[in-house]
Write a structure and sequence with these properties.
- The chain is α+β, with helices and mostly antiparallel strands.
- It has one domain: Beta Barrel (Thrombin, subunit H), CATH 2.40.10.
- The chain contains one helix and six strands; from the N terminus they run ββββββα.
- A six-stranded antiparallel barrel has the order 1-2-3-6-5-4.
- The longest helix is centred in the C-terminal third of the chain and has 25 residues.
Length: about 120
């Protein structure tokens, strides 16, 4: 599969996610996703540089795929819903990367279809 041209442009999402680390697990909300990063809203914070496993499900390859991706906190700030954590993926397998890219391609197609429906091209007739 060729690389997705918008792969690192984050897409908005609203999916349940589990953050798993040495000291336990926390349930959170995945709010944005790209081929290299994930943005999460959590009630529990984590310091920049903390490595966690991100466990979440996405539709890819015409089925739901559960991913368990290693990632490091690269940014954090307070949000009204909790703490926003930005993660950078550290070592995705080719299969995990392909599933992410398939999901991102799907989301980008939906966005493009929405734009086309909101602004249909006018006929030249």
């Amino acid at each position: 599969m060729p690389p997705l041209e918008n792969a690192d442009k984050p897409v908005k999402t609203n999916r349940k996610i589990i953050l798993s680390g040495k000291n336990g697990q926390a349930h959170a909300l995945l709010v944005d996703l790209s081929a290299q990063h994930a943005g999460v809203i959590s009630q529990r914070g984590a310091k920049e540089g903390t490595e966690l496993e991100l466990i979440f499900e996405i539709p890819a390859f015409k089925q739901f795929v559960t991913l368990a991706l290693s990632a490091v906190v690269s940014h954090r700030h307070r949000a009204k819903e909790g703490v926003y954590l930005k993660f950078s993926f550290t070592r995705n397998t080719p299969e995990e990367q392909a599933a992410l890219e398939d999901f991102l391609a799907y989301k980008h197609r939906l966005l493009e279809m929405g734009r086309q429906q909101a602004h249909p091209h006018e006929s030249l007739e």
